[in-house]
Amino acid sequence: MIPLVTIIEHYESSFHKKYSTKLLPGHLKAISAIKRCRTALSGEFHVQCTECGHSEWHPKSCGYRSCPQCQNHEASEWLMRQQKKQLPVDYYMVTFTLPAQLRALTWHHQTIIYQLMFLCVSSTLKDFGLNPKNLGAEIGMTAVLHTHSRRLDYHPHIHVIIPGGGINKAKRQWIKTKGKYLFNEFALAKVFRARILDGLNAAKLPIPCSMPEEWVVDRKRVGNGEPALKYLSRYLYRGVISEKNIIADNNGRVTFRYTDGDTGETLTRSLKGEDFLWLVLQHVLPKGFHRVRDYGFLHSNAKTLLKLVQLVLRVVIQLLAPNQGSLLNALIARLPCRSSVLGHQSQDK
Asked: 72-237 in CATH: which number?
């Protein structure tokens, strides 16, 4: 393992010289944060043993979201929050990817196009869920933006974790997905493509002439959803590469390892130190941009509705205190227009 700060110290000068025209304020802030992380420059805290009285001063973490040493606690907290929302149903992960022809445009207009991606992904999935031919219900989902491939190349895409079912408010029922199938990925890709292009036109952004007719949307069933959530949590509050995967820094070249997505084989990639730094830092998101978003009954504003769904699906198995009264009736009363989940129905009945 080679700390990223060591790579920065070795190649910062050549990195600035080669990539000065591409550097944004966020890149410079990331470099500064990583360099001071867990040093006295980030501040210190005092710890003392309650038994022997021995005490020490320890440096604080920088807390920056692109630092590979930080945010492990935040990632664990996020995973715990997601696990509390889990339902006893099959889960699906759907991945929407922009074609290579749009990557340069996306890089130069990151905030606009990343927002557009979230909008088009969420609206496409919501509409497919509401379609009676698919589910006929409002779905919940958690979407996460990734900008890198396993080789760390620029590759913007959004992963979406979706519980297998939804709420039909008109019938006041939970509708379960049919069998082990969610939505057709080819139909999803077609609608996603049309909405992205419409959005780019509305934003008056130039669309490359070589735009492919077919885009890629991947859909897979992921069991109870926990493996997919754990996979995503590793990239939410940390840098795009774990320091344990940086395995060599020799003769001006840095080597790191990664896992091939198709074969599962562990491979290595080696490139100049300044190019490696750019490979990592190009994935720093615009200031204030949130890479993870919840929708539908998984949104933070829908906690009441989610609790009701969990009650219907018998997720919450505990006795209520006498002074709490009927929690179910209280939840139903609080729902707008009394659009509640009062029954459970499988779509394939």
From this structure: 3.30.70
